[in-house]
Amino acid sequence: MIRSLTPVAPVALVTLLCMGLALWLIPDQVVRFLVLAVIVLAALAVAHGDSPASPLPAESQPTQGKLDDTLHQLARNSGVNAISTAELSFAITNLHEVLANTVERLEQVAQSSDAVNKRAQDIHHFTGDVAEAGEQTRLISGQGQQQVQLLSRDIADVVLASRQAEQTIAGLRDKAEKIRSVTNVIQSIADQTNLLALNAAIESARAGEHGRGFAVVADEVRTLALRTSTATVEVGELVEAIHRETQQAAGMIHSLAEQVDRQSDTSQMVADQLGQIANHAEAVDQQLKNIASSLGENQQDLAQNTLLLDSLTGDLSSQQKQMKQLTERAQRLESQAEQLLALLVTSDDTSAHRRIYSIAEQTARRIGQRLEQALSQGELTEAQLFCRDYKPVKGIVLTKFETPYSAFFDRILPEYQEQALSSESHTVYAIATDPNGYVARHNNGFNQPLTGDVKKDMLGNRSRRIFDDKTGLRCGAHTQPLLLQTYKRDTGEVMHDLSVPLYVNNKHWGGFRIGYRPLD
Length: 520
Fold this sequence. Notes:
Elements (H helix, E strand, L loop, with lengths): L8 H17 L5 H16 L17 H144 L4 H136 L4 H25 L5 H4 L5 E2 L8 E2 L3 H16 L5 E7 L4 E2 L14 H7 L4 E2 L3 H8 L5 E6 L5 E11 L2 E10 L4
Antiparallel strand pairs: 1-2, 3-8, 4-5, 6-7, 7-8
């Protein structure tokens, strides 16, 4: 039975709601959403009567039946509006999250850009230092090349002098050979003279007194021959020593000449390498100058990009604040739509929402009575029933929790929850929840045995879990006669969630929630 209302109540209610929404949203920059919401809600009123500002003529006032139809249509349109509001809130929330993530990423990019800019400055300075060092290397290489060239010329002079000394020693060796030949001739003459003197002495001895004078001459000749022979031997020994030493000197000078030749080749190689180093240093110096120039330009571009990123980050931060305000206002709009829809649900006995509400209310009352019975019979203590200490279930991959009453709920809840679930064809779940979103026992369809497949078990076994999203938390925490939430799931599906408080001995335990799809 519909509650007694004056004929203009629905229209006035919509008008007041429009005014309230306008007052909430006009200061915001999203006037398009405001205008859309106001037009939709105002259209609901105009669709069933004249302008809210114009009183209905007495002859056209609706009958009670027409008022019932109007109220039913208003409830239906309010449900559609709640869906649109939920979709709008979902889109705004997602946009707010995307914008927040974008701002965060841009801040990270800005920080990275600052760091890159600083590193570019450091590299620019380092490149300048390296270019200066390269220039010094080029100068030093050039000086070294000049010194090596001078050394090469000096070595060439030494090589030439060594060759000349070698030739001179070779000449001395030849002359020493000639002297040795002469000494050999002199030695031969001395030997013959000595032999001749000996023969003369023999002959003078034969001659007696007549040969005495000749003997004296023979003795002198022999003495001279002996002295000549001795001197010749000494000269030969000196010539032989000179010959040996000349040979050694010639060998040493020849070896020195070969070493000097090798050093000359090495010096020339070093000179060539220093020349190549100087050329490379000059090329590197030019490349470093080009790099320094490019880095300077990049540094300017990075500085400009940093300024642009800072400006963009500032703009997005401002938009993020406005989006946060828009999100809050969208949530208020959603809350007002929920309140309006809840009011219409309790006023219209024929709507699908009213049927769900009746099922939820009856089920919550029956569960409360069963829990009161459990307390009175000692099946549970009040401390166990109202315990909010959630112990993680060990030995499984999924995050699940146990409470002192979880096993008891496993035994008693299916009877009530499955009956509520099967009462309407479009219901998806019907479960009891505590104020923190903890569901000890879900419906049978979502209480399948664990398989070890995380994705499959996440969908197939939803018992012993805490649903702490905004919708789930509100279901067990509120104490309103009913809370009808309309939200958009991450799958894109729009869902209604109707919840009522669950009391045990007049003490708020949590709530009973039913999720169902829109009928149209």
